[in-house]
């Protein structure tokens, strides 16, 4: 059976700072959620509440109908993978896999070994002796092989090189196809990871600004491509997010939906319309004078 998460009026205050502000959210099993936000927006604080690392100041989190804090049934099915300092860790990956078999009911040792091989980190060397990227790959391996009903990844990819990140993305997709679960990926690598996401959450200064499925958020903007003059004419007076020009062809991203009549005009003028990138929308929505709706 799969788990969903219900969050009601969740707030977190640390010292005098309001870190998270009245977040209401419902997360469904089988979906991959992307958690985006600028530095200091509250992503890690939010995820640490979901993982029961701390209690909220007010509001509730319910997982599979129960409060997760100090709840072994729920917490054995929630994994939280984040950049961890392993510089003093004398245990090996193999030691951790042995422990995981005891604490994670669905941990799959074959999967862990296959991932270790694919990532190329050793099983029997102290984790402190692994490179930073190999340590990240080890943490990501545990997060996937645990096969928990809820898998949270908070920037575990930061130390991985590009080919290693690609392996992680491929493995994540395959794991999700084999054993669908509720996944949350917190990331700044928006353009690189957007294809993994079913749903997008954007936190901004502790508030949940966006809670939309990927397709609908992507349709909040349009890329207009065609001859420079026609593109300039069409986008005049609209909020422009980004422009690129190659010779006489220009592509400009605009914010806002187009009416059918406007789409027809674009077509008549030889302009091509396509979705915008999530990265550009994210920048626009969270910039100081940006807006959403
Ligand atoms: N222990 C703490 N005490 C006081 N304030 C804290 C504490 N931990 C984090 N904060 C503050 O909470 C805010 C949110 O931090 P958080 O780490 O959750 O953001 P983030 O979105 O994950 O940022 P980043 O993308 O930079 O990792 C920041 O302003 C940070 O300074």
TrEMBL record:
Keywords: ATP-binding, Nucleotide-binding
An example Gene Ontology molecular-function term: ATP binding
Gene3D superfamilies, per database record: P-loop containing nucleotide triphosphate hydrolases
TM region positions: none
PROSITE patterns: ABC_TRANSPORTER_2
InterPro entries found in the cross-reference section: AAA+_ATPase, ABC_transporter-like_ATP-bd, P-loop_NTPase
Top-level division of the source organism's lineage: Bacteria
All copies of domain ABC transporter, residue ranges: 5-230
Pfam families linked to this entry: ABC_tran
Protein's name in the database: ABC-2 type transport system ATP-binding protein
């Amino acid at each position: 059976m799969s788990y969903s998460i219900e969050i009601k009026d969740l707030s977190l205050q640390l010292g005098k700072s309001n870190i998270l502000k009245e977040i209401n959210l419902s997360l469904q099993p089988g979906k991959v959620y992307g958690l985006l936000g600028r530095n200091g927006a509250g992503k890690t604080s939010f995820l640490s509440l979901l993982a029961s690392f701390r209690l909220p100041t007010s509001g509730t989190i319910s997982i599979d109908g129960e409060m997760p804090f100090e709840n072994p049934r729920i917490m054995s099915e929630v994994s939280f993978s984040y950049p961890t300092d392993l510089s003093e860790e004398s245990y090996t990956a193999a030691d951790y896999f042995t422990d995981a078999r005891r604490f994670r009911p669905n941990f799959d040792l074959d999967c862990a070994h296959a991932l270790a091989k694919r990532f190329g980190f050793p099983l029997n060397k102290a984790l402190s002796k692994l490179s930073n990227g190999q340590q990240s790959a080890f943490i990501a391996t545990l997060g996937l092989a645990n096969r928990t009903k809820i898998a949270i990844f908070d920037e575990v990819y930061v130390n991985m090189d590009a080919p290693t990140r690609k392996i992680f993305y491929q493995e994540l997709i395959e794991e999700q196809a084999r054993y669908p679960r509720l996944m949350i990926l917190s990331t700044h690598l928006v353009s690189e990871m957007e294809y993994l996401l079913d749903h997008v959450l954007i936190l901004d200064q502790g508030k949940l600004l966006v809670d939309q499925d990927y397709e609908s958020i992507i349709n909040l903007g349009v890329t207009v491509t065609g001859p420079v003059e026609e593109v300039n004419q069409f986008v005049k007076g609209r909020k422009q997010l980004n422009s690129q020009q190659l010779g006489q062809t220009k592509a400009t991203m605009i914010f806002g939906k187009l009416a059918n009549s406007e789409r027809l005009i674009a077509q008549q003028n030889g302009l091509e319309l396509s979705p915008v990138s999530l990265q550009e929308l994210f920048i626009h929505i969270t910039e100081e004078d940006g807006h959403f709706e």
